[in-house]
Q: What sequence folds into this?
């Protein structure tokens, strides 16, 4: 645990006094202190290209009155700096008047342990694995022309001081191991990427040469793509594989169910609470409480313990994801979804681990039912236009389906759909729900936060596939 | 006030001295401070104010051909001591790489030219709010506009880049950015669009009313879009999308992608990759240019580069490390391009719009659909159907796709270039792309 006042001319009591004094007329707010240490070790082009270490320290001071948020952050944890921030907040909220007194619920549950993954493994042993990865992949096949592999690890300590001196703390480990491989055959180049990670030590992911499985998977994806033909263009049926393809749920539905867009009525879902927004059998939850998952949090960045929030139950819209500000303005409670990338940013309602739960059908049944369509196994990134509801994501591994059978692999194409209607087009939900391998980062308003997704295989009746083959 | 040159120089030289004392054979430091103040409005009312004061230091140490780096936001000496010690320790344990080194001394910039990048004007938050009040009034004139958001950011920054070969330079810069987002609604649809302005000097930004009005216009014309069928078609890219395509081109000619063999433009130097009429410049010495500079992020002097001349690729963007791998000298592009632009084409915007009987005019794309390894391009898009030079109706939920190798050869530029941002393009037409819709 960090002691933020150790080397400062500011002591905890003084900080608490400034916080209470600044926030006394406000609805909400807090002093958020953060100390993060992170490392990145990168092998690329046969060499250790980068070994870097970052230590970041700072505070963000927030005051909220009505709908107005005033925020000030700095790297210097000092009396002067905090006082200046306090003045900034006061000058914005000159006529602040607030009386929100919804206290932070208490919980003793923890969803990860207090470790520093960076220190748990020596630099040399990490470099050794990266070199093995490189050697293993280059030996595996003559077509391997480029290998990139990296470790990144982080330990983030946060402390939240609220008006009245209430203090909440959390220490969050996060690691990621990633392999990317490029193959070249007959002048054609294709790449494949795979990674794993979560809130544990590196060793939890790398026991028994598990790094080889990561290499094999990246290699397999690249090989499939070497034989891919141009993707079709137009509307057709799409079968999504289990696990990571749930990024579709994240983009198409998840963002539209975040509290801020609905309070501001800019989300296509804002007036659909209690209504049917998905086919029967579709249940979607956002869960911050899964042990050691990338999107899990013991407390959110306002101090609220996270929970398992049911967003859509059997097709009916049940809840939005809320931070304290949007919950107060929408007369509901925070779902522990208030997150920020770091102390430089204000809190926004965000997803944690977003999951569609299993149904009854098998993937086989889905494929067999399709005359002409595609089977999408893995994706790169996605994006959504919250207002129009249109969303896209890019296939990194996909196949055509012809007459109920999986055919040739197809080139990376963008799929586009309409968020509010896509879940009504889900006609089968598989019995094979799977979590993603722990690699997702979600971007919103310039802030990236780690997230997880999960889903079973699903059949979507109609989506537009953005290939080049007419 | 942002930290002055003297403070930053002192920190930089402290680090260089300590690294040397601890055994580094070379080192470089970048230390910077930026302060920005933001005011956000929503539906004509104050929504958020944000003051951010960012300090940061990046240190890279070399021991022979070994290299490692650290970064931190905590500039207290205690912390710097711990970090530099850690950096040296890590450097010792990192394997050698023959291409690691500081830049060639004779390539380092000798002077910092004054491009007038700093405007000392400080706007109190009340003045920012005044600007946004006028902006939002203009943005919400039409009844169909149901939501407006806007933002005003004032930023001042300063930095020093120093290395153990005696380089020690930096400069102050400022930026003023205002943006307006409008949401419009009719019975069939809800749409949003935006407009923004970004300048080094306060007096150069667009006026508030104009900005709000533009954002509203952009949004209103998107209402009640239709989906169209899949076909091969000519596409016209609005300037704001065209400049993104230019940025993708720039990432594909970075020496890093070329030397790793992961670019579709590898081995294409001195070959014709664009249609004859295309010329591309990267010009770092534009007066008040948002990306103007005298040196790159390694201290190497930057001169104007003609990247593409009459369709032929003439230069890569080269940094020291990748340059050594390719046996080329750095051309001062570590960290990317400066002010990058397509030279004007020969044809007017109007003639471009009229040049085919049916085409799509694309104003927004979504998704990360540019693959620089293969050149494949496939993104979600919104825009308008144009028939015989006339805007027929808005379209959405389509994708557009092609491969950059073909797209570049079939590219025609209008003559409406403006220097609004750091990367700029005239309106762009590309024939023979595929749209996927119904």
A:
């Amino acid at each position: 645990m960090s002691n933020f006042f150790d080397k400062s001319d500011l002591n905890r009591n003084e900080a608490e006094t400034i916080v209470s004094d600044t926030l006394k007329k406000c609805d909400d707010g807090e002093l958020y202190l953060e100390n993060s240490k992170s490392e990145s070790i990168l092998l690329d082009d046969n060499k250790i290209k980068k070994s870097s270490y970052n230590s970041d320290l700072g505070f963000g001071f927030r005051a909220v009155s009505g709908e107005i948020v005033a925020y000030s952050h700095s790297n210097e944890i000092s009396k002067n700096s905090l006082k200046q921030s306090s003045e900034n907040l006061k000058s914005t909220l000159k006529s602040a008047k607030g009386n929100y007194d919804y206290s932070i619920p208490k919980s003793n549950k923890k969803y990860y342990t207090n470790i520093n993954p960076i220190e748990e493994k020596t630099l040399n042993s990490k470099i050794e694995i990266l070199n093995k990865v490189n050697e293993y992949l280059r030996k595996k096949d003559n077509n391997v022309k480029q290998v990139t592999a990296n470790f990144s690890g982080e330990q983030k300590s946060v402390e939240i001081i609220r008006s009245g001196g209430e203090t909440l703390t959390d220490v969050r480990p996060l690691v990621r191991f990633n392999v990317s491989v490029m193959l070249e055959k007959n002048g054609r180049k294709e790449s494949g990427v795979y990674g794993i990670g979560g809130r544990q030590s590196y060793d939890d992911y790398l026991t028994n040469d598990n790094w080889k499985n990561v290499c094999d998977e990246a290699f397999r994806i690249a090989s499939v793509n070497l034989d891919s033909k141009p993707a079709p263009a137009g509307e057709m049926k799409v079968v999504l594989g289990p696990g990571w393809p749930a990024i579709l749920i994240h983009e198409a539905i998840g963002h539209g169910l975040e509290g801020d867009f609905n309070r501001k009525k800019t989300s296509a879902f804002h007036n659909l609470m209690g209504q049917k927004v998905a086919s029967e059998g579709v249940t979607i939850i956002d869960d911050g409480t899964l042990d050691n998952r990338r999107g899990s949090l013991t407390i959110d960045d306002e101090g609220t313990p996270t929970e398992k929030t049911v967003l859509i139950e059997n097709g009916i819209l049940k809840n939005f994801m809320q931070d304290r500000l949007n919950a107060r303005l929408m007369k509901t409670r925070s779902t522990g979804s208030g997150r920020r990338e770091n102390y430089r940013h204000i809190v926004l309602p965000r997803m944690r681990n977003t999951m569609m739960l299993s149904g009854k059908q098998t993937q086989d049944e889905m494929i067999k039912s399709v005359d002409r369509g595609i089977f999408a196994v893995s994706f790169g990134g996605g994006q959504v236009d919250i207002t129009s509801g249109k969303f896209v994501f890019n296939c990194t591994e996909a196949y055509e389906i012809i007459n109920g059978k999986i055919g040739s692999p197809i080139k990376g194409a963008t799929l586009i759909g309409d968020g509010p209607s896509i879940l009504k087009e889900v006609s089968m939900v598989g019995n094979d729900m799977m979590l993603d391998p722990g690699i997702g980062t979600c971007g919103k308003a310039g802030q990236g936060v780690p997230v997880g997704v999960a889903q079973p295989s699903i059949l979507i009746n109609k989506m537009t596939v953005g290939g080049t083959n007419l | 006030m942002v930290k002055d040159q003297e403070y930053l120089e002192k920190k930089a030289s402290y680090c260089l001295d300590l690294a040397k004392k601890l055994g580094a054979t070379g080192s470089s430091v970048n230390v910077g401070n930026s302060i920005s103040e933001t005011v956000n409005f929503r539906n004509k009312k104050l929504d958020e104010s944000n003051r951010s004061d960012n300090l940061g230091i990046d240190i890279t140490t070399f021991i022979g051909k070994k290299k490692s780096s650290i970064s931190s936001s905590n500039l207290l000496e205690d912390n710097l001591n711990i970090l530099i010690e850690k950096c040296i320790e890590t450097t010792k344990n990192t394997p050698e790489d023959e291409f690691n080194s500081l830049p060639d001394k004779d390539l380092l910039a000798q002077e910092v030219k004054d491009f007038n990048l700093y405007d000392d004007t400080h706007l109190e938050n009340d003045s920012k709010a005044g600007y946004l009040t006028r902006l939002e009034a203009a943005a919400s004139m039409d009844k169909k506009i149901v939501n407006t958001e806007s933002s005003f950011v004032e930023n001042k920054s300063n930095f020093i880049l120093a290395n153990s070969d005696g380089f020690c330079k930096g400069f102050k810069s400022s930026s003023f950015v205002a943006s307006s987002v409008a949401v419009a609604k009719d019975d069939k649809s809800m749409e949003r669009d935006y407009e923004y302005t970004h300048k080094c000097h306060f007096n150069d930004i667009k006026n508030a009313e104009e900005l709000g009005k533009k954002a509203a216009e952009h949004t209103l014309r998107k209402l009640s879009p239709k989906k169209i069928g899949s076909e091969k078609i000519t596409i016209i890219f609005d300037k704001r999308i065209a400049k993104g395509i230019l940025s993708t081109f720039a990432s594909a000619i970075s020496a890093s992608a070329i030397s790793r063999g992961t670019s579709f433009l590898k081995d294409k130097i001195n070959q014709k990759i664009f249609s004859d009429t295309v010329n591309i410049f990267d010009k770092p010495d534009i007066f008040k240019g948002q990306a103007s500079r005298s040196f790159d992020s390694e201290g190497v002097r930057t001169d104007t580069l003609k990247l593409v001349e009459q369709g032929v690729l003439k230069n890569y963007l080269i940094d020291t490390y990748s340059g050594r791998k390719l046996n080329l000298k750095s051309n001062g592009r570590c960290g990317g391009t400066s002010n990058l632009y397509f030279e004007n084409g020969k044809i007017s915007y109007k003639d471009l719009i009229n040049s085919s009987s049916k085409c799509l005019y694309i104003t927004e794309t979504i998704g990360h659909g540019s693959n620089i390894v293969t050149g494949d391009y496939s993104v979600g898009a919104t825009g308008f159907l144009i028939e015989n030079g006339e805007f027929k109706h808005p379209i959405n939920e389509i994708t557009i796709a092609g491969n950059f190798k073909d797209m570049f050869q079939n590219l025609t530029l209008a003559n409406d270039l403006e220097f609004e941002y750091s990367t700029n393009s005239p309106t762009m037409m590309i024939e023979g792309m595929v749209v996927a819709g119904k």
